[in-house]
């Protein structure tokens, strides 16, 4: 049985940053996996 697309996205677990492990407040469908804090520190180094 196929799951409705909206139900699939609603049931995804929260995204976590690959560097620090913090939950990200973003859409789960987006491709980014690094939080803005870690992205900012990467550019400052």
UniProtKB/TrEMBL annotation:
Name under which the protein is recorded: Protein YhfH
Pfam families: YhfH
